[in-house]
């Protein structure tokens, strides 16, 4: 069975995600830096992933219970926009459109 881990996040889909035997990371198809991690204990947490100078940084945004989907997306965009100055001249900041 193939597990699709990248798809357009919707309110209905995020609530329907079930815990599996191991931690799973899902990515929003429209904002790929936005991640939703679901643990085996069914804890669902939003993160934003940024790659700066070749190193990936993962920043916790909040739990599914704390944040509405639109709020998680807005926070992710804020972090991405705020990280623009960290990129060297030959690196490209992620597209947030």
Structure characterization notes:
By secondary structure, the chain is α+β, with helices and mostly antiparallel strands. The chain has a single domain (18-86), classed as Double Stranded RNA Binding Domain, CATH 3.30.160.390. Helices cover 21% and strands 31% of the residues. The chain has two helices and five strands. It has helices spanning 11-16, 69-82; strands at residues 6-7, 24-28, 34-38, 44-52, 55-63. Strands 1-2-3-4-5 form a five-stranded mixed sheet, covered by helices on one side. It is globular, with a radius of gyration of 14 Å. The model has no long low-confidence stretch (mean pLDDT 85).
């Amino acid at each position: 069975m193939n597990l699709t881990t990248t798809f357009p996040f919707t309110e209905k889909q995020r609530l329907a995600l079930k815990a599996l035997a191991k931690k799973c990371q899902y990515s929003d198809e429209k904002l790929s830096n936005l991640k939703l991690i679901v643990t085996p204990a069914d804890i669902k947490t939003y993160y934003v992933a940024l790659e700066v100078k070749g190193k990936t940084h993962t920043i916790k945004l909040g739990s599914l219970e704390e944040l509405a989907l639109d709020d998680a997306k807005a926070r992710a965009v804020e972090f991405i926009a705020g990280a623009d100055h960290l990129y060297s001249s030959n690196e490209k900041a992620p597209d947030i459109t």
